[in-house]
């Protein structure tokens, strides 16, 4: 044998052993089922609650609303601008649906030049679906703060019965 034959023989033997193990299913290589790599499925989009730009005549207000999610997991904003230039913006964070179909969406007022809903207080909009969507605003004002956004909605939803028609359109979720 030549000098290279000694170094090739152990390598060839190892290769032959590995191939034999794969074919017989007795070795680690080739006998394991394929492992599926986890895939990151896209997250479902949050459900639409309400979206639109409309006027609310009783307040002479223009409203821009964009809310998605449900329960205590709501995201979006609502900006209300009154005719005389006062406005407020609400960071939406919770919603509930009343038995009569009203959708109540609320959160914390983050910007405000509107006396009734100062920055740091809770504000909500009540929307009633129908041929002509009706609405009502509710705010914490000087009342003591509820412990959560949802507690605020549950506390005020019973008084939100007198709604007024909006001018424009708002798309309400399912």
Protein described:
The chain has a 9-stranded antiparallel β-sheet with strand order 8-7-6-5-4-3-2-1-9, with helices on one face. The protein folds into 2 domains: 1-29; 48-172. The model is unreliable at 1-30 (pLDDT under 50). It is globular and about 45 Å long. The protein has helices at 3-24, 149-156; strands spanning 48-56, 61-70, 73-82, 87-97, 103-112, 122-128, 134-139, 164-165, 167-172. The chain contains 2 helices and 9 strands, in the order αβββββββαββ. Strand 2 (61-70) and strand 3 form a beta hairpin. It is of the alpha+beta class and 174 residues long.
Structural class: alpha+beta
User: What proportion of the residues is helical, as a percent range?
Assistant: 10-25%
Task: Using the alpha-carbon principal axes, give the shape.
Answer: globular
Largest sheet: 9 strands, antiparallel
Q: How large is the count of helical segments?
A: 2
User: Radius of gyration from the CA trace?
Assistant: 32 Å
Question: Going across the major beta sheet, what is the strand order?
Answer: 8-7-6-5-4-3-2-1-9
- SSE succession: HEEEEEEEHEE
Low-pLDDT ranges: 1-30
Mean pLDDT rating: 80
First-to-last CA distance: 83 Å
């Amino acid at each position: 044998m030549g000098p290279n034959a000694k170094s090739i023989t152990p390598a060839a033997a190892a290769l032959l052993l590995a191939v034999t193990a794969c074919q017989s299913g007795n070795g680690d290589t080739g006998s394991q089922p394929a492992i599926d790599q986890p895939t990151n499925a896209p997250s479902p989009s949050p459900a639409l609650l309400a979206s639109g730009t409309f006027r609310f005549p009783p307040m002479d207000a223009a409203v821009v609303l964009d809310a998605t999610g449900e329960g205590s997991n709501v995201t979006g904003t609502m900006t209300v601008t009154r005719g005389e230039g006062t406005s407020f913006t609400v960071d939406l964070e919770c919603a509930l649906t009343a038995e009569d179909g009203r959708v109540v969406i609320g959160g914390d007022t983050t910007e405000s030049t509107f006396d009734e809903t100062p920055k740091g207080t809770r504000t909500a909009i009540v929307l009633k679906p129908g041929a002509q969507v009706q609405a009502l605003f509710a705010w914490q004002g000087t009342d003591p703060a509820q412990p959560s956004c949802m507690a605020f909605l549950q506390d005020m939803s019973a008084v939100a019965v007198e709604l007024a028609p909006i001018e424009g359109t708002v798309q309400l979720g399912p």
